[in-house]
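Support request, please re-run this one:
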Amino acid sequence: MERIVDLVDHQVIASVRSEEAMREAVKSPVNVIFLLFGTIFNLGALLEMAANHGKHVFLHLEFLEGISSDKSGIRYLAETLKPAGIISTRSNVIGMARENGLLAIQRLFLIDSAAVRNGIRTLHGSGADAVEVMPGVIPQMISRLADSLPQPIIAGGLVRTAEEIRAALEAGALAVSAGSPELWHRFPAR
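Re-run finished. Output below.
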């Protein structure tokens, strides 16, 4: 199985919430897309569009319609749709994805110091390939997590400027997920 650090060639990851944004993302220089929308009816076409442009897609399971994040849903994704991986806030889903050969990114919300402590503890045992920390505009927390976890850090959420991306990267993030197409074009490949 590929590793996320080998898969991510661009410092910005396209965070996509609509078909229009998906059409723009596949034409952008990013090589990884976080798909934050979709239904059982259009995911195949969206993944095919991405594959035709050489993009790797991670499906955020909590935002998909018609596909459950249970054993059968994860198996269906892995065997039929074949994304690069999944994103989830739930550790049990991370484990099922890994068992089915998918890369798995665990999303962690940094709402207070207890959430940070619990997140670090959970991530040490989750088997996640990477962690997406939200919001991604807290460089000191990104640095702390990068020093405390074996997984690479992807910063995301509330990222609106190139300066915020630079700060997250300098703090130790592997990449930054952003919803703004303007930001997808601003940073070079790693």
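The chain is about 40% helix and 20% strand. The CA atoms of residues 82 and 102 lie 8 Å apart.
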